Amino acid sequence: MIHHWPIRVYYEDTDLAGIVYYANYLRFIERARSEMVREAGVDQTAMKAAGLVFAVRRVEADYLSPARYDDQIEVRTRLTDVKGASFVMPQEVWRDDTLLFRATVTVVVLNAEGRAARLPADIRAKLEPFTADVSP
Prior knowledge:
There is one protein chain. By secondary structure, this protein is of the alpha+beta class. 23% of the residues lie in helices and 35% in strands. It contains three helices and five strands. The chain has helices at residues 22-39, 44-49, 121-127; strands spanning 3-8, 52-63, 72-77, 86-95, 98-111. A five-stranded antiparallel β-sheet has the order 1-3-4-5-2. A hairpin with an 8-residue loop joins strand 3 (72-77) and strand 4. The model has no long low-confidence stretch (mean pLDDT 94).
């Protein structure tokens, strides 16, 4: 299953040229990942209270075409390569049928000491509907 999260591009998201500033794509995909995890039923506040957090370990990004002020865009997120303490989240930003941005984000689970920790089985089960075996 792919998670879809719509975004409107605001003036504050753009640079002097009127296109989305490159770093803002990272903000867009971060919010979409958070919304996907929330929709899956994972309570990150409760995770933190239990001594676990998600952290981004790696981002590989491709900027393909610019988004502009007032565009309605959509972030599409899925989950692949679920391992003991990490998983990969391929994400794409689309405007209608045009792919604008693509990123592959590796997320790890960290304990309170900042060390890798196993993804708890209950959280893994909640995220399972978003897994996909297709390549990004």
